[in-house]
Amino acid sequence: MKLGLFIRPVGHHVAAWLHPNSHVDAGVNFQRFVEMARTAERGRFDMLFSADSVTAWTAQQEGLHHTHYVAWIEPFTLLSALAPLTKNIGLVCTATTSYEEPYSLARKFASLDLVSGGRAGWNLITSDNATEADNFGRISHPPKIERYRRAREFAQVVNGLWHSWEDDAFLRDRASGLFFDRSKMHVLDHDGTYFRVRGPLNVARSPQGQPVLVQAGASEGGMELAAETAEVVFAAQSTLEGGIAFYANVKGRMAKFGRDPDELKILPGLSVTVGQTEDEAKSKFDRMQSYIHPDVGLGLLSTRIGFDLRGYPLDGPLPELPKNDVIGSRSEVLVAMAKRDNLTIRQLYERFAGARGHLEVVGTPSQIADRMQEWVEADAADGFNVIVPYFPDGLNDFVERVIPELQRRKIFRTEYESTTLRGNLGLRGSQIRLPAAADELVAASR
Predict the structure, then answer these.
(1) pTM for this structure?
(2) Which of 262, 264, 274, 360 could form a disulfide with 355 if both were Cys (CB 3.0 to 4.6 A apart)?
(3) Cβ distance 300 to 353 under 8 Å?
(4) Which domain holds residue 394?
(5) Is residue 411 situated within a structural domain?
(6) How many structural domains is the chain composed of?
(7) Does the residue 276 lie in any domain?
(8) Cα–Cα distance for residue pair 352/297, rounded to 1 Å
């Protein structure tokens, strides 16, 4: 079983900052993240994962002052600072293909991979928050289909750049005066629909060969891109049946790209509230839910589904929504959840405020381990991206109570197998598989 820790200022619950035990200053206090990282590493997590958005408008503007998650330490900088303070845990963060450039992104993540000794990963997103366009001089945010076309070429270019140097390309031979072997440098010379990139990358290979490529899309385009390029997929599935179907769908697409299903690890989000007893866990959960301000819940839900719900009865059903070609697949998950469980708008935002559409388990360590084991054994997951309501208590509870239970069942490691993220995930190392188009480009450059 593989485990990521979804780090977020204060916690994942939208009202996390209101809990009296939470690290309310985590958005500006780096030492809070150091504590998170060291606790997760003590728990033998595979990776830290930080999401990102390049806008402060993460919810509808009205009521925004009630929520905390509008300003935070930029994740790449954060993980770079955490690299020398950790030893084994992977460092994965989000960067968007819609508002980045392939060369600069490839260079940054390759550098983090070197600094960390082979523990970096890039979570490829296309951005589903339309307000991000306002910060980059764009008239509008591109529709999903266009974003995924750009993302596919973006991933090919980045992969090609990460293949610029072979492992033993740098001779550093003072006697001969040769610093590198030119035959082991590969110039990409990419000229595509969206990008023209010559290369090579001016960063050498790391101990794991290249950063791990992570993806989270669940739309048709997202699943296709994941099957072709991703090595880890963060999924949002709240039912076992949905998890099994998603797992089979994505892994079933891989053969046409010449890939083995074991080359991809699927980690659904798992929101956990841990108690020594079931009643204690439910009490903790109910307390967190009581902190949700209606304006915040409604604003958050409106943003995530791409439709302004203000003015609709909170205790009424979700209205019929118009087709949205911009917002990502999470909106479809929320609408399906509301219809499946007959939820009111209030009930839907209450459920989303904590778990954000992911699997949610409230119970004892044994009950949580039961659910995790069930999903892995049913081929609904290879592990989980763990979400805790607030830091530090939620993480401490998981590491001190749930991890020992998983270890007792012999379904989770007691020691790290490797010092690289690939090694711990059981992924291939420096022999990099490139998408077909990038393979051809690299071959042509030799």
Answers:
(1) 0.88
(2) 360
(3) yes
(4) 2-289+357-445
(5) yes
(6) 1
(7) yes
(8) 8
